[in-house]
Design goal:
alpha+beta; 2 domains; 6-stranded antiparallel beta sheet; 6-stranded mixed beta sheet
Length: about 400
């Protein structure tokens, strides 16, 4: 539920109490790594199995029913027929919640596609990473017909570097958990050669009530990551450029390796497999730098401002321009907007989008005069009042003072 609180400016700000999650890297040996890969492969197989049968069932036009009911019928076929075939006996080695979560994900994928929120679901592939979900099933029933005891459908996680996943053995963590907590659902995923476990806590984070700044305008740019109307600016670290240069060198040095081709039945060489691992590590390193920078930036802005105004940019259109694509992708425009939006309940902020046709860069923040501005011009020199100001700083002030008819909630 949402509740009204008051900021330092005595204006109402909507907020809610939000739940948060923990993500930790697993410390696995070779046997445990093989087990994780097996669970991920099992889920991938079940997801692709359900996708094939669902699309095949559409050819029977005389059967009219929803996708959800079709998937439920496919699930019965899988459990009562497919799993009993001797060649699929290996499926019994893995927890049942793995395939159950696969059918849940398939339902969600088709629901989003029907609503127009996503593209048609595609088959899962090893190249896009491994992941699977485990959860604690029904709890302990004291007597027949009575409800389960409270919290028996939760896994209690003790403080330390050990975690017990439902259906699997106790695993080690690289970073300790500092407090005792509980959760029901656990998602295990792989990035490059590292495995992580994420779970939601049965706890709530109380957001702050007072913010030093009432309204702040944030202009996302090419040269600078973000410029704020209070005079602060954020930039992507130099390590990103160094990491991208190293990535290019790795790709160039391995340009002649036999990388393999499934369609032509050409197997990848051992050196090519090592190259794939090295390439994935470098991509993950670049992604981690960007994620760390944007997370720290959005958290800092959310802590100091009650109302955050950003421009409603057409990111997909900007990426289509080959001259802007690299800068837009590197500066994570949409990711910054996504982080500011989901952090609203955590910091009691309100994120507002300024209309994309609002001339924030072309208008003078002092007198309101509008004049043409090319992308190469980095200083705004007003032809009316003579105001000379940095281009991004001028735009951030205009976003902060944008009229209400040009603003909508994110």
């Amino acid at each position: 539920m949402f509740k009204v609180v008051y900021s330092s400016s005595s204006k109402k700000v909507w907020r809610c109490l939000a739940m948060f999650a923990i993500k930790r890297e697993l410390k696995l040996n070779n046997v445990e790594t093989s087990l994780m890969r097996g669970n991920a492969g099992f889920k991938r197989w079940v997801y692709n199995f359900g996708l094939d049968l669902l699309t095949a069932s559409w050819s029977f036009e005389d059967i009219k029913t929803s996708d959800s009911k079709r998937i439920d019928a496919i699930k019965k076929v899988f459990t009562q027929v497919t799993m009993l075939i001797p060649e699929y006996a290996w499926m019994k080695l893995y927890p049942s919640t793995v395939y159950q979560s696969a059918f849940i994900d398939l339902k969600d994928a088709f629901s989003r596609w029907r609503k127009g929120l996503a593209e048609f679901p595609k088959k899962k592939s090893k190249k896009k990473g491994d992941s699977f979900t485990l959860y604690k099933t029904a709890g302990i029933y004291p007597l027949i017909g009575e409800p389960p005891l409270p919290f028996t459908n939760r896994v209690v996680i003790s403080a330390g570097k050990l975690i017990k996943l439902p259906g699997l053995k106790e695993l080690r963590l690289k970073e300790r958990i500092d407090f005792m907590c509980s959760s029901q659902t656990f998602t295990v995923s792989r990035t490059a050669d590292k495995w992580f476990v994420a779970f939601m806590l049965d706890a709530q984070k109380i957001p702050p009530i007072i913010h030093p700044i009432e309204t702040i305008g944030v202009d996302l740019g090419m040269k600078v990551l973000a410029t704020c109307s209070d005079g602060t600016f954020y930039d992507m670290p130099v390590t990103t450029k160094k990491a991208k240069t190293k990535l290019g060198k790795i790709q160039w040095r391995n340009r002649n390796k036999l990388l393999g081709n499934k369609k032509r039945r050409i197997k990848a060489s051992n050196n090519a497999l090592k190259y794939y691992t090295q390439l994935a590590k470098q991509h993950a390193h670049i992604a981690n730098i960007r994620q760390d920078t944007t997370q720290k930036m959005t958290t800092d802005i959310s802590r100091k401002a009650a109302v955050i105004r950003i421009e409603d940019l057409n990111v997909s259109g900007m990426i289509a321009n080959h001259k802007l694509a690299s800068a837009v992708s590197n500066n994570c425009f949409y990711e910054i907007r996504r982080q500011l939006t989901y952090k609203q309940p955590f910091y009691a902020t309100r994120v507002e989008l300024v209309d994309r046709w609002f001339p924030s860069s072309k208008m003078c923040s002092k007198c309101g005069h509008i004049q043409p501005m090319g992308l190469s011009e980095r200083v705004y020199n007003c032809g009316n009042c003579g105001n000379i100001q940095d281009r991004d700083d001028n735009a951030s002030n205009n976003l902060r003072d944008a009229p209400f008819d040009k603003i909508r909630l994110a």
